[in-house]
Amino acid sequence: MINNITKWLDKTAEKYSEKIAIIDGERTITFRELRYKALCLAEVIVKKGLFKEPVAVVMPKSLDMIVCFLGIAYSGNFYSVIDVKLPLARQKKIMETLQPKLIITTLDMENEEEADVCHYDFAGLNLLCEEKVMEQRERTCDADLLYVLFTSGSTGDPKGVTITHQSVMDYIDWVEETFEIASEDSFGNQAPFYFDNSILDIYSMVKTGASMYIIPQSLFSQPVPLLQYLKENKITTIFWVPSALIVVANLRALKKVDLKNTLKRVLFCGEVMPNKQLNIWRKNIPDILYANLYGPTEITDACTYYIVDREFADHEPLPIGKAARNTDILVLDENNQRVGNGEAGELCVRGTSVSRGYYKNQKKTAEVFVQNPLNDKYIEYIYRTGDLVKYNEYGELLYITRKDFQIKHMGHRIELGEIETIVSGIEGIHQCCCVYDNEKKRIVLFYKGETDREHMICEMKKYLPQYMLPGKIIMIEEMPMSANGKIDRKRLQEMI
After folding, report:
1. Cα–Cα distance between 340 and 322 in angstroms, integer?
2. How many C-beta atoms surround the C-beta of residue 132 within 10 A?
3. What is the reported pLDDT for 427?
4. 270 versus 254: which is more confidently predicted?
């Protein structure tokens, strides 16, 4: 039985010692080097006396980050990625919740937390005693945390999703088997490492010996060079957010670069994939595997999937399919009963993929990680996703919308309440409300007050990442109100 995900790396480094594991621009690292550097870092952490403690990783996206993830896992601790592009105020909120015992960075940082700040030159790490690291690793079990990833929170405070070694190992076992991933494959990584979609790329590489290319971010605004990069590097598998696939389709890049002899799999997750753009991909690169994965961060990346196996009209919705292996899906109505055929209900999940809850937030955890209402015989927790779905005539799940005001935008799950909380704090704002324009895929902010647009944007940028900034801002004289005294969001939606 494997109790720690790093045991995969032990086997892979032995079997594919000199094979390139990660390609990061001009930099590369073999599986042997990856294991060695991770162990070196683990030894440093072990010597600090840390065990089952949070370790923050604060650095630009690079292969060094993956060395950190694995080194932290070897040491028996768990990691949390802090996006260096986040506003400092948001970084601080995450740090206040996480309270890391160690911060690993390649940047110049002031230590405002009660934590060591360690600057590492990964090329200069040396291993003195592997045995000490292995002794500590053996004290871990698969129920221990591997990572905590922070997502948007309705109160303005980011939520830390806790995920165990067991959850990731179970998920990657399923990915390897379902999509037939092997050492001959190569991943073209798009997802930021603070985004849970990256879990599939990173740990599939670690387990199978496939190579992983960290695609330069600049290429995602240049569709033709992006596809040329895939072709030149013979990348077989991509797992991208639909937004990236849509841009490639809309700008007709697929007609200019032939990927038929290299690309084998196109997987996507994080938001709705429109069939209009998917059909362009399927027409230009037929006879390869296309799969729609669904799952919030709380479900270790994905809990349902649909391997595209038939034709769809441009206007048709794409199914999110069926439950992944070792996962059970419950679609419940407002009375906590299973819905009938064609009826909408909330998608709920149980299984090893489910998070252990939100880090240091028992109140929020208790709201959505609840006892299975269909089981009154023993404790059995499920996660209530807040997503409304229904079954189609094929018995496949169809995503409908959010149950609350949480949205999926640019591959990120965002709670509009968090944006409203920040805007409400701006001087001169009397009332505000955010809605989502599904047609133009943008966040729309309505507000009542005397503050001008430029000042609002300046203030929002201090606290919100770029992907959470409203795409349209509308000042109104009076907020429409419903009969119960709440802001009438439906009427605002009609005013877009």
Report:
1. 16
2. 14
3. 85
4. 254
Give 442: exposed, middle or buried? Use CB within 10 Å, 0-12, 13-18, 19+.
Answer: middle
Distance CA 55, CA 104 (A): 7
Give the list of residues 6+ apart from residue 1 with CB closer than 8 angstroms, or none. Answer: 142
pLDDT at 57 exceeding the cut of 70:
yes
Give per-residue burial for 353-383: e unless 16+ CB within 10 Å, then b: bbbbbbbbbeebbeebbeebeeeeeeeebbb
| Residue 5: C-alpha distances to residues 171, 335, 374 (Å) | 12, 40, 33
Confidence label for 42 from pLDDT (cuts 50, 70 and 90):
very high
| CB of 204 closer than 8 Å to CB of 232 | no
Exposure letters 52-65 (e unless 16+ CB within 10 A, then b):
ebbbbbbbebbbbb
Cβ atoms of 186 and 20 closer than 8 Å: no
Domain spans, the chain? 6-307, 406-494
pLDDT tens digits, one per residue of 441-465: 999 999 988 888 899 999 999 999 9
In angstroms, the CA 199 to CA 17 distance is 22
Sorted by sequence, the CB contacts under 8 Å of residue 134 that are 6+ apart come out as none
| CA quadruple 44, 47, 51, 53: dihedral sign | negative
Q: In 3D, which of 319, 290, 321, 318 has the Cα closest to residue 303?
A: 321
Q: What is the pLDDT of residues 470-486, one digit of tens each?
A: 999 999 998 897 655 57
Q: Are strands 186-189 and 237-240 parallel, antiparallel or unpaired?
A: parallel
One fold for 6-307 and 406-494 = no
Cβ(385)–Cβ(404) below 8 Å: no
Query: According to the model, what pLDDT value does residue 155 have?
Result: 64
Q: Domain 406-494 belongs to what architecture?
A: 2-Layer Sandwich (3.30)
State the pLDDT at residue 118: 84
Which one of 3.40.50.12780, 3.30.2000.10, 2.40.50.100, 3.40.190.10 gives the CATH number of domain 6-307? 3.40.50.12780
Element (H, E) at 279: helix 275-284
Give residue 112's pLDDT: 57
Average pLDDT over residues 199-216: 98
- Strand segments, DSSP code E, in 265-395 are 265-268, 289-294, 304-307, 322-323, 327-332, 345-351, 369-371, 381-391
The tokens of 285 are what? 């690169």
Question: Which of 249, 203, 196 has its CA nearest to residue 408?
Answer: 196
What is the amino acid identity at position 121?
D
Mean pLDDT, the chain, whole residue set: 93
pLDDT in tens, 229-268: 999 999 999 999 988 898 899 889 999 999 999 999 999 9
| pLDDT tops 60 at residue 390 | yes
